[in-house]
Amino acid sequence: MAQTEHHDTFLSSAQLFERAAIRCREAEQGLRNCFGQAGEARLMEMKNIADQEHQLACALERFVESGPAKVLNTRLQYQLDSKLLKKISSRSLDDAVDQLTSLNNDLASTFHDQALKSGSPSVREAMENISTEVNAINRRISMIRVTAQDI
């Protein structure tokens, strides 16, 4: 009989937010660790991007600390290919930015997907709000990058 590997694909909303915050912190730190590779012209751009990721991590952590218990305790199913399962490790400045933006895109998609799948109006609203916040941060990061190219 072939043996299969078991994966638990369910977790609470609080665990999902905690994992997302951890990955955001890793992405932020990975970018900050590469600041030495940035020339003077790009350093301000990279600092602004890292600050945006820091704000996202803080928002997720605040929600875990003070969000409604009925939302935080709700069990969710997530995808095994999610970036939430992969530790972020950057080798270069461009790699760090790419991983950060890829993570944020995955988070926005994950939270939006959870909102669509939820039967609870409060969970749906919380997931959609967080997805919207991640998308807003992604737009700010894009604007930072575009503005930096124009300078």
What class do helices, strands and sheet pairing give? mainly alpha
Radius of gyration from the CA trace? 17 Å
The CATH class, by name, is Mainly Alpha
Mean pLDDT: 87
Write the H/E string, N to C.
Answer: EHHHEHH
How many domains make up the 3D coordinates? 1
Major sheet summary line: 2 strands, antiparallel
The tally of beta strands, per DSSP, is 2
Q: Summarize the amount of helix as a percent range.
A: over 70%
The N- and C-terminal alpha carbons lie at a distance of 63 Å
Care to describe what's here?
The chain has one domain: Ferritin, core subunit, four-helix bundle (Ferritin). 71% of the residues lie in helices and 4% in strands. It has five helices and two strands; from the N terminus they run E-H-H-H-E-H-H. The protein starts with 9 loop residues before the first strand and ends with a helix.
Condensed summary:
The protein has five helices and two strands. It is mainly α and 151 residues long.
List keywords for this structure.
151 residues; mainly alpha; Ferritin; 5 helices; 4% strand
